[in-house]
Design goal:
Elements lengths: L2 E7 L9 H17 L3 E6 L6 H4 L4 E5 L10 H8 L1 E5 L3 E2 L5 E4 L5 E5 L3 H19 L10 E5 L4 E2 L5 E9 L2 E4 L9 H4 L3 E5 L5 E2 L4 E6 L6
Parallel strand pairs: 1-2, 1-3, 3-7, 5-10
Antiparallel strand pairs: 4-6, 6-7, 8-14, 9-13, 10-11, 10-12, 12-14
Helix pairs in contact: 1-4
Length: 218
C-alpha cells in the first residue's frame, strides 16, 4: 500500500541552529529504516500555520512547538484546524508529545523539539501508525537481545522511560545524561531499554531486553 508522509519543524529561537540537521535527519532515517518502504516523504523546512489546512497526505509529523513555552503553537494550531486527542504523556524524555487528527481524518503527530525526545516520540507513536499504513506490523522493527545490566536503572512508577544504553563485554550500561537535548546519548548508544510504567527500574545484574539501533533487521 502506498501512502504519503509530510514532515515539518517548528523552529524555536533556542533550537534554530541545531534542530533542522538533527531532528529531520533522525526522523527520516527511522522512517526509511523500518517504516517507509512504500511511502513518499514531503519535507517542509519550517512550520507554516497554513500547512494544517493545506495538508492532503496520510500522515503529518510536526517536530517542535509542542511544549508549554511562549513559542509552542503546534497544539493550539492543530486544535483550531482539527482535533487534539492527546497532548502530554507520562513518557521520558518525550512528555510534551501529542497527536490528533485533521478534519479529513489524517493523523498528526506532535513530536518534541529536543532531538532525543523527538526520536522517542516517533518510536512510540508515529512509527507504529506509519508501519500499519504500509500493511506492516506496528511492532518496533529493531533487533532485540536480552543481556544483564552492568548498573541499575532507576525510574518512577507511572512513567515509561526510554533509556539509552551501550553494550560492553556482554553487559548493558545505561548512558547517564542531564537532559533530553543531549543528542550524543543516542549517537553513543547501541540501543534502548524500555522501563515500563509499572516498574521503578531494574537492578544491577538483572536481565533486560535491548532494542538495538543497528539496521540488521531490514
Amino acid at each position: 500500500m502506498n501512502y504519503s508522509v509530510a514532515f515539518t519543524q517548528h523552529l524555536q529561537r533556542f533550537w534554530r541552529r541545531s534542530t533542522p540537521a538533527t531532528n529531520g535527519a533522525r526522523v527520516l532515517r527511522c522512517h526509511r529504516f523500518g517504516d517507509g518502504r512504500n511511502s513518499q516523504v514531503e519535507r517542509w523546512p519550517t512550520f507554516p500555520r497554513a500547512l494544517f489546512a493545506a495538508h492532503e497526505g496520510d500522515v503529518l509529523l510536526v517536530s517542535g512547538g509542542s511544549s508549554v513555552g511562549p513559542e509552542d503553537h503546534a497544539p493550539m494550531v492543530l486544535a483550531e484546524r482539527g482535533e487534539v486527542a492527546v497532548h502530554g504523556v507520562a513518557l521520558r524524555p518525550a512528555s510534551p508529545a501529542g497527536f490528533g487528527f485533521l478534519p479529513g481524518g489524517s493523523p498528526v503527530f506532535l513530536l518534541p523539539g529536543n532531538p532525543v525526545s523527538c526520536l522517542c516520540a516517533y518510536e512510540f507513536f508515529a512509527g507504529p501508525t506509519i508501519r500499519a499504513l504500509g500493511g506492516r506490523s506496528r511492532a518496533w522493527p529493531h533487533r532485540r537481545v536480552k543481556l544483564p545490566l552492568a548498573a541499575k536503572i532507576a525510574s518512577e512508577l507511572g512513567r515509561t522511560d526510554y533509556m539509552r544504553v551501550s553494550i560492553r563485554d556482554g553487559r548493558v550500561a545505561p548512558i547517564m545524561t542531564s537532559g533530553a537535548s543531549i543528542l550524543s546519548s543516542t549517537t553513543r548508544a547501541d540501543g534502548v531499554v524500555i522501563v515500563e510504567a509499572h516498574r521503578e527500574g531494574h537492578g544491577e545484574g538483572e536481565e533486560v531486553e535491548v532494542h538495538l539501533y543497528d539496521e540488521d533487521s531490514r
